[in-house]
Amino acid sequence: MSFWKWLGVACALFGAAPCWSAPYAPAPLSARIEAYVQASMAEGATPGIVWVYQGGVPVYQGSHGASDRRSGASFHEDALFDIGSMTKQFTSAAVLRLAEEGVLALDDPLERFFAEAPEDKTGITIHQLLTHSSGLSDENGAFDGRDSDPYKSEAEFLAPLWASPLNRSPGSDYEYSNAGYSLLAIVIERVTGEGYETALRRLVLEPAGLTQTGYRLMDWSVQNAARGYDDFHADPDRADRGLFYLERWRTEPVSYRLLGNGGLHSTPADMLRWMTALHAGDVLNADSLALLQAPLVALDDPYPPTFTHYSYGWGVGRRPSGEPWISHSGSNGVFFVSVQYGPRTDTLILHMTNTARGTVGRMGYEVARMMDDPRYEPDPVHGGPVRLVQTFMADHTPEHIDLLPAYLAARSGDPVPAAWVLNRTGLHQIEQGHAAWGLALLELNAALHPEEGNLQDSLAYAYEQTGRLERARRHYRQALTLGQSTEDCYWCSNAQAALDRLVQVASSE
Fold first, then answer.
1. H helix or E strand, kind and range, residue 323
2. pLDDT tens, 221-235?
3. Do 422 and 443 contact (CB within 8 A), yes or no?
4. Which stretches of 239-369 are assigned E, i.e. beta strand?
5. Residue 166, SS3?
6. pLDDT of residue 245
């Protein structure tokens, strides 16, 4: 794209007037994004990769946080992430390629591919699976279990799916269905005679020039793979989820519960190549590409202007400026990835992180709002309640514990964190030998949640570990008293055993 054409696009996007007398310079936007990212890091968030491109030109390329907290390794363009449900856009592209080749049709019913399909599902079409309007529901037994469960074969995946009731008539309404996209993966395998990933490479990945995207067949190394972190845990060793599936898939096939709907891995560089190749027509013809951007099925809970409809593997809507906008995100609860694209102005926003807790998933979408409105200044995102507490501790001493509720309220809107947050964080401090912080957190928690017997048990344990035995006995008794009004007093056996032990110690003194 020429400089003058690029200048015109940029000015049109940002509403500068007159355009040619006030040329757009990306530095102000870049500086605003950088300030937003830095403010979010100060709240315990891990921004990861945040890239903004317009007309193929980088407006902002940020890389913040650690892809490996043990070594301190930074994110980079070849860092490998689990992209979660963004897998669906690759599955949909493969299906459209097969439709272009005449191998299948978008209105083909399932009975063409599955002779064993029960009567209520034989009429479900490929189009309905692609648009989440098949009537299949992940809530009705078709998608039981977790992604991390042991391998499920095709037969083990299909049996509960066929037995599950439909949640609505096929084609009548939208309901997001991971199971439907795994069914599409099996369709791809049956019509091509190839494994899903082999077919995906031939139909989609190789035409797009992607070598670092896939499940098991892509180029990758341990050094380039981002480790996943679940900051639900205060203990950094427990928060470290490692390489997730990558090591497992060295010896084990990808479960059909995940195949085609999630779990693909990719890099920032490959995702940039993917969006460039896809919209340049290197993967799909113009008619197929138009379907990816068309508002095909209204969402059940629309979020205008970005998401009002679903197409094939993409959410579809319009920005406040009226620009057509497609987007999708993906997360397995540890990694989070989102991509947004405006075909009219060739605008791409890519966000990839290995720490999905808290509000970090908003980052890419807040950047889009910053582009819509030069005056918009989003609140920083945070890394979840545990990270917020840890950030507070880094900036304060235990004597300032009374400031914590207001600190949390200003960032999360809730001055009283869930009981598990301070309980987990305080116990970890005790285990690490940081008695002052551990006691401060656990005492505050017991005060904020006075009816929680488990918190009295934890506080008693902390007193015991720090030699405050009389206080420990008192709070173990309080834990048992509160347990009398609870059907499931899971802490009572521990509290009683500890109290008996401490009473015996006192009697022997």
1. none
2. 899 999 999 999 999
3. no
4. 240-242, 265-266, 297-303, 307-310, 315-318, 324-331, 336-342, 347-353
5. coil
6. 87
